[in-house]
Amino acid sequence: MHSETIKNYTINTEYELYEPQRKSIETILTCLDNGESGMIESPTGTGKTLSILEAVVAWVNKNPEKLEGGQIYVTTRTIKQASQLIAHLKKMKNAPMMNLLASRRHLCLNSEVSKSNDIDSACKKKNKDPNKDSRCKYYRTPNEKEQERDRNISLPGVFSIEDLVSAGGECNSCPFYYTRERQEKATIIFSPYNYIVSERISAALKIDLTGSVLIVDEAHNIDDVCRSTGSVDIKRADLASLISRLGTGSGMESPEVANSMMETGKFVKKIMNYLEETTDVLNKLDPGQCVINSDNQREISIPSKEMISTLEKMGISKLTIDDTFSSIELLFKDMIPDDYFFQWITQIKDVLKYIMNDGENKYGMVVSSDKISFLLLHAAAIFNPIYEKARSVILLSGTLEPFQELVTELTTKKNSFKHFLSADHIISQSQLYTAEVSQYNSVPILGTYQGSKHPDYISTLVSSIVDIAHSLEKVGGVLCFVPSYNMLTLLERKLEKHVKLFVENKSNSKFEYELEQYRRYCKMGKCIFLCVFRGKASEGINFRDHESRAVILVGIPYPNIRNHSVILKKQYNDRYLNSTGSKWYEQQAFRAVNQALGRCIRHKNDWGSIFMLDSRYRSAVRSLKISKWAIASVNMITDKTKLKDTFAPFVLNQKKTPNEEEFVKENTSYPVKRQYPSYSSGNFKRFFQS
């Protein structure tokens, strides 16, 4: 056991702290002591998770009175990541009582309800039944819990999601409702951060951040999450479904409900008529007068100054909005018990009320033949109220810089965040090989629209990627990130002829399958997992040791410049924020790049390589847009000979380490017995359809 003092707090850990951990703990403790906010960037593999927990536990145990009834919310992107934090907390001594907020999808024990497409609605409907025998056997009213105490879940101060589900099963009691009851008693509450960001969810869970501490881990896309949370689509298909449900009335409704049905029908019809009129207009436009969206449909944006008048055409105004939506909400309460529709309607109401109350300049309105989209353009509309309530807000990630631009996106005050830390990596320079590949075999590599038209662009990419994979021999696999699924499909057909290839898929089940098989076969070398920037593989997946001996970055993943959400966001920043639209656009691209290259090194003794396949990376390195730990030394590769001269010796040196010698020896005779079809699009599709 190791013990040391940081800012008069005793920190006890199993091993000696890394320097980035010391600095992170110090920054967190400073924020907590002073009731201030901060941002911490610490590369993946530097022990950021332990830093959060050590600082929080030490501070709470020494200063329980400083929370004054508040709590500490430790949030991250997913329940899986929250579970990893809890696993660390379970190992710590004197950890305060914690709680985990998770959805019914993760906690439901009822086999019938858990299979429903809408678990929330199915659960609520089943438990409204006055007949106890018809209700879920795991659900009990407060009176029943008082009378049947032997069936109450009992857990220690710190528990995992597995502990919770197991305890619920043993005593036939609902884990979901148990966590709601435990919430007020807990000091540390773990949850996905969308529970905090969504006002609707936080209200339903009775989350009150007043005087509390909010810690957001993996916060690199918190601004995107806020804008997405504050945006809403009104789809033609959903309107049609709502009309269909209204038509299922019995004719025996109360006058109040019958009137609500009539008013709702009128409202929906006006929106449908507007969509019909817009479709006629769109069909008459020349291609240059509109944008073609990802569904290959024409769409236009409505200027801010015309947004209110456009809404009034649909019968929505400051005077009518409350009455209109009260009628709709009454229907969901008395006639249509559907959580999806109720949440959707509530979100529409909240967005439209915000727009009507002088918020139109913070929104973009985009219309196609199938939907009307209201796009929030400034994350501060969502995040600033959260910041104002909390005692401290601390954001952490491997990729947060530039800090001031993120502050501008999230809050309305210039000095809202007072403490910033950009920590170094814990590896030595000898453990990382970085190369920029601006051209290969005399062919320029430039992934712009014009550059990618070069007749040899794709074949040159394939040659360089294959040569890199082969250079690794049998020490591990390659993660290759590309800007889009279109590029992924194009390279897939070429690469599968030369290497063992696995491909990221949008489907969760297919992705997990490909990932599992990649992990199995990457031990043999000459194996590539082809991924997409901002995709599933770029965050939340731990590629350890031989699973990511090389990370290849193909092109730079700039957002689609023709996408209305990008156009409107750039215009908004130029007009209203200190950070220009062009800066925001650059940051979106390089945050995705830095997130992907973070898959390379996962711990102190790890080693790996990074290859940047695009001539634009040269200026990106010079202007420090790439994470500084990754570009301490950059090699210039132009052909296979240069690759052999510089990369081969690096790999050879790493192979001489005791761990690697043992790894290569163990996996030289790895049996290649595929229990699934060899990868091709056709075989893969048939396999999953069977």
TrEMBL record:
Example GO BP: nucleotide-excision repair
InterPro entries named among the record's database cross-references: ATP-dep_Helicase_C (IPR006555), DinG/Rad3-like (IPR045028), DNA/RNA_helicase_DEAH_CS (IPR002464), Helic_SF1/SF2_ATP-bd_DinG/Rad3 (IPR014013), Helicase-like_DEXD_c2 (IPR006554), Helicase_ATP-bd (IPR014001), P-loop_NTPase (IPR027417), RAD3-like_helicase_DEAD (IPR010614)
Helicase ATP-binding domain mapped to chain residues: 7-279
Keywords recorded for this protein, A-Z: ATP-binding, Helicase, Hydrolase, Iron, Iron-sulfur, Isomerase, Metal-binding, Nucleotide-binding
GO MF terms, alphabetically ordered: 5'-3' DNA helicase activity; ATP binding; DNA binding; hydrolase activity, acting on acid anhydrides, in phosphorus-containing anhydrides; iron-sulfur cluster binding; metal ion binding
Pfam families: DEAD_2, Helicase_C_2
GO cellular component assignments: nucleus
Entry keyword annotation includes Nuclease: no
Oxidoreductase as UniProt keyword: no
E.C. number: 5.6.2.3
PROSITE patterns per the UniProt record, alphabetical: DEAH_ATP_HELICASE, HELICASE_ATP_BIND_2
Xref: SUPFAM superfamilies: P-loop containing nucleoside triphosphate hydrolases
Catalysed reactions listed for this entry: ATP + H2O = ADP + phosphate + H(+)
Highest taxon of the lineage: Eukaryota
Signal peptide: none
CDD domains per the UniProt record, alphabetical: SF2_C_XPD (cd18788)
Protein name: DNA 5'-3' helicase
Organism: Nematocida ausubeli (strain ATCC PRA-371 / ERTm2) (Nematode killer fungus)
